[in-house]
Amino acid sequence: MKTTTLLAVALMLMSAVTADAKKKQSVWPDGTAMDQWFGDTAKVDVAALGKQYVITDYGVKNDSALLQTEAIQKVIDTAAANGGGVVVVPKGTFFTGSLFFRPGTHLHMAEGSRLKGSDAITHYKIVKTRLEGQTLNYFAALINANGVDGFTITGRGTIDGNGKRFYDEFWLRRKVFPKCTNLEALRPRMIYISDSKNVTVQDVRLVYSGFWTNHLYRCSRVRYLDCYIYAPTSGYPKGPSTDAIDLDACSDVLIRGGYINVNDDAVCLKGGKGTFVDKDTTNGPCRNILIEGVEYGVAGAGVTFGSEAWDCSNVILRNCSFAGTGNLVLFKMRPDTPQKYGNVLVENVTGTPKNGIRVAKWMQFYNLLDRPDMPRSGVSNVTLRNVDVRCTKKFYDVQQSDKYDLSGFTFENIKAEDPKGGFDTSYIKDCRVKDVTVNGVKY
């Protein structure tokens, strides 16, 4: 056979394999088709977003010690009043409290720029917001966007939460009041985006958030592309509850590429908590979440279900690496909340997490109310395949309980090592195991 013929055959085979792979990738774990939107990883073209408002052209000074919240907010409001546009932070460091983006406005962080949050909580407005599964009056985030469809944060600059003072205050408070909650510590999130569609955050460095780094509430069609998210996880003070990305009652979310290292959950699904969580219209489910190609450092888990989530489905975590991460996937099961988690796929992952898969009872701030018709909690249709990990604690930590049901798990093509071993799936209904090896023992 001629070389050209061989090449043609090879190209045909490669094309067939690629088409088959795309076909497989286009289906959610529940079998429904994945919208083509999830394949759109093209970066936002800032030049196409409208007029650019460079903040230093509008009276903002390049002064890292001067608080300029009002001056920067005025630039945002000017852009909104003129029909929208891009608020550009140029090279340099700019010091600010809470900022509020309006419909039609965007934020661009030029390379070498740093938007640095104040470390005084008095510089953050008290507003009605969503936090820890409830709506309440609390401090606004550093960057806020409510009802801003098409909102983008772009550029290779840095948004710096300047959180070390907040961290120190939190740990000191815990020494005096061991049971103090996050809310009592009085600290701001970095980014809060709510009730918005078609949101993109790309390329930026998000570091040292005082509290949760990214919190999205009731948003859809959200993309995080190649972002660097960091908070300190060793030494003193660590960044308490600096979750990288919290998805609160959100749907259609793509998190692709980038690096995450935070002192709590990496990607955390939320939506509400409590005995009557399903009766409160401010709560909601999380649906269609795709996480791929992320490099994880220290964090709670690649993806965490809870502890303020109750209805999550169609979640994919794939093609990711882990180095010191707490878990690949973690299900926090609250006995005071009816939870249904299902249709979850974890595939093509490698590295050195502490644990692999973990399902465990979660009792933090437990408050079970009287409800005769309390729905039964459960985790179903969970697949782990093509996994190669060396765990420092335990690969398989799926705990059985009379408080929830486990069913429809699949473990396939898994090679794991850990100090404890063991892989007893007998208490999981309809569990499928194929080509699983833990510490050299085949199951």
Structural summary, described in words:
The two termini are 45 Å apart. This protein has a 22-stranded mixed beta sheet that branches. A 10-stranded parallel beta sheet has the order 4-9-12-15-18-21-24-27-29-31. A two-stranded antiparallel ribbon has the order 7-8. It has helices at residues 3-25, 69-81, 164-176, and strands at 52-54, 85-89, 92-96, 99-101, 105-109, 113-117, 126-131, 134-139, 143-146, 152-154, 158-160, 191-194, 197-202, 205-207, 214-217, 220-225, 228-230, 245-248, 251-256, 259-261, 267-270, 286-292, 295-296, 303-305, 311-318, 321-323, 329-333, 340-352, 355-361, 377-390, 394-398, 404-417, 432-438, 441-442. By secondary structure, the protein is mainly beta. A hairpin with a 2-residue loop joins strand 33 (432-438) and strand 34.
Radius of gyration: 23 Å
Percent helix? 10-25%
Large-scale geometry:
globular
Mean pLDDT: 94
Given the structure, what is the number of helices? 3
Q: Strand tally, please?
A: 34
Largest sheet: 22 strands, mixed
**By helix and strand content, what is the structural category?**
mainly beta
β-strand percent reads: 35-45%
Q: In terms of per-residue confidence, which ranges show pLDDT below 50 for 5 or more consecutive residues?
A: 1-24
Q: Tell me the span between the first and last alpha carbons.
A: 45 Å
